[in-house]
Give the backbone structure.
Amino acid sequence: MRRSKLTGGSEKGPQTGRYDGRFALFLIAPAFFFYTLFLILPLFGTVVIGFTDWTGISFSTLRFTGLENFIQMAGDEFFWGAFRNSFLFVACCLLVQVGVALLFAIILESGPRFAKWFRSIFFVPFVISLVVIGILFNFLLDPTIGIVDSLLRAIGLDGPKFGWLGTTTLNVFVVIAVHIWRNFGFTMFLLIAGLQAIPRELQESARLDGATSWQLTTRITVPLLREVLVVASVITSIDAMRVFDLVYTLTGGGPFHSSETVVTYIYQLGLGGARTQHGYATAIALVLVLVIIGMSVIQFTLARAGRGAVSS
Amino acid sequence: MVFRELSLPVRLLFYLFLVVAAISILYPLTWMSYTSLKTNEEVMLSPFGLPTSISFENIVEAWQTGNFARLYANSILIAVVSVVGIISISTTAAYGLARYHFTANRALFLYFLVGMAVPTQALMVPSFKVMAILDSWAAALHLPIPLLNSPLAVILTYMSWSSLAIIFIRAYFMSIPPELEDAARVDGARELQILRHVMVPLAMPAIATMTIFYFVFFWNDFLWPLIYLHKHTLRTIPLGIMHFEGKYVSLWSLQVAALSLAAWPPIFIYIVFHRRIQRGLTEGALKF
C-alpha cells in the first residue's frame, strides 16, 4: 500500500498526459540544477574525498591516499566512541521513544478524556528549535539551580557533583532522554495516523467475539500497525543516528569526547576545529551514509520477512 | 480498545502516564516563561518560585543585547526564500514528472529518489567545499555574489533538498483526474496557465503540507547556518541563542529571557495552527 502511495499509484510513471518532453525538461530543470549541484555533487564528493587527504579547495592539492583514512579510523578510539554513542542513541530511541509513543498512541486513540489536549501538548517540543531545548535543559539539569537536582535533594539524594552533563558515563543517556522528550510526540502522531487507518470493523467484530482489550491490542491493533511501525522505527533510528544540535548544545561532545556522536565528530574534525582534516572527516561521513542506508534496508527487510511469515 | 470499558485501576494508571508526560513537557516551558519575567536576584534566591512581581526588564534587555530584531529578520529571510524557492521548483518538477511522457522520465524520478536516502548532515564537508569553490570562482570572475558567509549558501543548500517535495507533490498530481486539464486545454489555456490556475489550486493540500514541513525544518535548522554564517550580523535565531549563552554565562534570567524570545513565537503559531502543523509534519514524514 505504501509503495503505491509513494509512486502515485504507478510504478511506471504517468498514465495520462502529454508527450512534449522538452517542455517537461524545462519544468524539471530548476529542481534538477539545485539538487545536482548541492546534493548529488557533495554526495559524489563524499565518496571521492574520503579516499584523499585533501584540506584546501584547490584541486592541485588533491592527493589520493587509498585506504589510509579507513585504517586511521580503525585505530581511532574517538571514532569508535562516537559510533558507540550513536548506536546507543538508536537502540534507546527504538526501545523507549517508539515504545512510549506506541503506548500513548494506543491509549489516546481509545478515547480517554482530553485526548486532543494531551496529543497536542506532546507535540509542542517538536516545533521548538533543538538549540532552545538544549540550553533550556542545561538550566533544568544544572547542579545548583536545576529543578532535577533540587527534587533529588528534597528526597535526600544527590545528583552527580559536576552535574548530569558533567559525568563521562551518564551524560550520553541524559542527552538521549532529552532527545526522546522532544521527539516522542512526533513518533506518536505517526502511529496515531496508522491507527486511524485501521478499519473499525475488525476491532468491532473481535470485540463482539469476546476478545479482551489486551488481546485486541496485541493480536489485532499492533500487527495491523506494523507497516507504520516500521516507518516510524526507520525515521526514529535515522534521526537518532544523525543527532547533532542537542549534543552540541548540551555537552559539546564532552567531557573528553565522552558524549561525541558521529555527526558532532565529523563536524569537529572537518569544520569545527582549528586543524581541519577534511579527508578523514569525509571518510567517516561515508561510513555514516552507508550505516544509515544499511539500517533502513535491514529494518524494511525484516518487516517484509515478518509480514511474509504472518501471511503464509 | 475502548477506554471506558477498561477497569478503573487501569484507567487511572493510564491517566497517570498521560499527566506525568504532559507535566514533563509543560513544566520546563512554563518555568522558562515565568523565569524570564523575574529579576536576576529573584532567580538566584528562588530558582523555581513564581515571580513576585512581573518585570519585562529581562525580556527587553535580551531583545536588545541579543539583537533579536536582526536574528528574526535573518531567520525569516532564509526560511521564506528557501521555502518559496523549493516549493516552486519542486511543484513544477513534480508536474513535469507526473504528466509528461518522455524517455528520461523514470530515470529522473529515480534520480530524485536518491535524495531520500541521503542524510544531509553527512555531506557537510563536501558541501562546504563545493560552496567554497563556487565562491572562489565567483570572486575570480568579479561576480558580486559572495557564497561563503552569506545567507545564499544556506538557501542554496536547502533548495537542494527537493526530493521529498517532488515525490510528495508528484503523487498528488497523479491522483488528480486528467479530464480537468483537458477541459482547460480545450478552452485554449496554455501549459503553464494550466499548471498555475488548474493544477496548483487542486494540489494545494499537498503543497501546503510540504510548505509547513519544510518551513519548520528550515526555521529550526542549526547545522547549516553554523557551517556557513560566521558574521554575527548574519546569525539566525538558533545561532544567536547559542552565542547569547556563551556571552552572558552568569546572567541566568537574561539567558532564559532570550530562550523565551526564541521559543514563544513558534509555540504561539503552533497553538493557533496546531491541527495543520501536526498534519503537515506527520504526513510529510509518513511519505518517507
Summary: Chain A has a mean pLDDT of 86. Chain A touches chain B through 112 residues (CB under 8 Å).
